[in-house]
Every structure is written in C-alpha cells, then in structure tokens.
Amino acid sequence: MWAILTGAALIIGGLLFLFSSALGRRPSDPHQMPQGGTTLEPRRQGLRFLGISKNWPALAIIAVGALLLVVGGYS
To answer: 16-51 in b/e burial notation, b at 16+ Cβ within 10 A?
Structure first.
C-alpha cells in the first residue's frame, strides 16, 4: 500500500515540477503577431522548453513513481 501512495505522490510531484518549469519562465506580455491580432505567447520561445535535457529530473521522478505503482500493484 505504501508503494502505491508513494508512487502516486511522485507522479503528481513530477508533473507539478514539469509544469512549473514550462510555465514559470517568462511573464505574459501581450504583443502583436505578424499575421495580425494579439497573443500572450512569449516571443521566440520555440519548442526548446519541451526538450528532455531540460526536463529530465521531472521525467525521472515520474518514472520512479510509475515503477512504484507497478511494484505496489503486484504485491
């Protein structure tokens, strides 16, 4: 039972850590898009913030949590 609760807590904690690193980088700055209209998307952000090299700690925490859920489910 402790493995399931710990695994669930690690998965939730890993997701929160993953989301905080993606959302907490830059403040919202409304600006005009070249196509017209306004957006809150940061300028020149690209998809670099989704890379494994920046998010490996959160992914490792999620993987350990999933492993504990599997182990707890079979015991």
So the answer is: ebbeeeeeeeeeeeeeeeeeeeeeeeeeeeeeeeee
Domain count, the chain: 1
- What is the sign, positive or negative, of the torsion defined by CA atoms of 47, 48, 54, 56? positive
Residue 47 placed within a domain: no
The answer to whether residue 14 is domain-embedded is yes
pLDDT tens per residue, range 41-61? 666 666 666 677 778 899 999
**pLDDT at position 27, please?**
67
Enclosing domain of residue 1: 1-23+52-75
